[in-house]
């Protein structure tokens, strides 16, 4: 007989304190940019950056033939690129995903200290016994998890395809064990009606958006649209005109008729939104309000650890290489490859192939 385990109490995650860093002097920025460009060529390396990192890094990735993307596209791009070294500007699970897919490549990160509260909130030591206690459920984990957690999963998924995947599994009659983001899990459950057992971690950035303050901001700007990432609390999502993954939100910012857009996701994304719709005005959804701790203020303290200086340094020294133990990698690859294959099948259907 299988015993049921309760979901462990949510871990208390203390994000690092970020102190205001003095902006680089123009000459220093130019010197670092030139040095990094040279080193990327010399080391046969490509820069893969997330939408939430500093815009200096996003611009550099674009200028050097790398990519700026969400975590699904980062994984796909790194896998398809011929460079022998991938430099991942983001947080640790993104570097690990690159290594899971590319064991033959060297994967470097500007910093190994860049964590994610979702990853930290779902330790393998608690998650694996929980899965073992629910063998009747398909284990679906968000990409924001460690290699060990992915290795225990049946599926890895990103927010861009999560609803479609759960609909697919529900149609097959599967019950789901979902981890780690409870807001995203709740959102998907509401849309699909699937039987989902939810882990209880949250993102320190999105969990801080406040519905009451957002309602007040909407009143001040009745002509603005609200767009939100589904890692935000349900009360915030109820106020949104569009809910979607980072890539879907950039697309919405471009396509919505409104000229003003209130954005409930990390403000690092404004670089790409302004590129997509230069004439529009973007506002950060409020994180202040009753009970707000505002540790992050709409910007991920771990993403912020990526900078031109530490990027140049790892390219110089080859430090901060990501390693994933081989038996864990092989197991994690199975669930990650399923995600890529599923995403490719959706793209094929959308193209009408
Ligand atoms: S923004 Fe949230 S989900 Fe993204 S890396 Fe930071 S803590 Fe994790």
Offer a concise description of the structure:
The protein has 353 residues and is α/β, with parallel strands linked by helices. It has helices spanning 26-42, 55-63, 71-80, 92-101, 117-120, 124-132, 147-152, 162-171, 182-192, 211-220, 234-237, 246-255, 270-276, 308-317, 326-351; strands spanning 45-50, 67-69, 85-89, 106-108, 137-142, 155-157, 175-179, 196-198, 224-228, 242-243, 260-264, 281-284.
Outline the structure in words.
Helix 3 (about 70-80) packs parallel to helix 4 and helix 4 packs across helix 15 (about 325-350). The radius of gyration is 20 Å and the shape is globular. The longest helix is centred in the last third of the chain and has 26 residues, at about 325-350. The protein has helices at about 25-40, 55-65, 70-80, 90-100, 115-120, 125-130, 145-150, 160-170, 180-190, 210-220, 235, 245-255, 270-275, 310-315, 325-350; strands spanning about 45-50, 65-70, 85-90, 105-110, 135-140, 155, 175-180, 195-200, 225-230, 240-245, 260-265, 280-285. Helices cover about 45% and strands about 15% of the residues. Strand 5, helix 7 (about 145-150) and strand 6 (about 155) form a beta-alpha-beta unit. The chain has three domains: about 25-115 and about 305-320, Rossmann fold; about 120-200 and about 330-350, 3-Layer(aba) Sandwich (Rossmann fold), CATH 3.40.50; about 205-285, 3-Layer(aba) Sandwich (Rossmann fold). The strands form three sheets. Strands 2-1-3-4 form a four-stranded parallel sheet, with helices on both faces. Strands 6-5-7-8 form a four-stranded parallel sheet. The protein is of the alpha/beta class and about 350 residues long. The chain is built from 15 helices and twelve strands. Iron/sulfur cluster binds near residues 116, 204 and 266.
